[in-house]
Amino acid sequence: MSRYPFEMFCEMIGGLPPKAVLKAVAIERFMLEEDLAQGRTLPSDDTASILTFCRFLADPAHGGLTLPRTMPMEHWVFYGKTVERLVAAGELPREAQEDFEAANHDVDSRIMA
Known about the structure:
Layout (H helix, E strand, L loop, with lengths): L4 H10 L3 H21 L6 H14 L14 H16 L5 H19 L1
């Protein structure tokens, strides 16, 4: 049975201690970008979601988070818990959580409009 990229990403990141998450995400981003560029992985909603989140974690101070409004709720929930966990452990600044929550609010506003 084939597993979806998001499920594998959740399993990997969810099982790591907070201190290891940012490095693992950086490696995952590199591998996923390479796989997409070489045609080993096909673009999908999952891969777009994962890459967007990986880029946000790589540099949360770079700017606000923009995630697609079509992203499944399970992605939002997992990403939110991950950001919360990393902020609590001191791996991300508090502003990262605020940016994530603002992005969530923006998506909710666009969906309701």
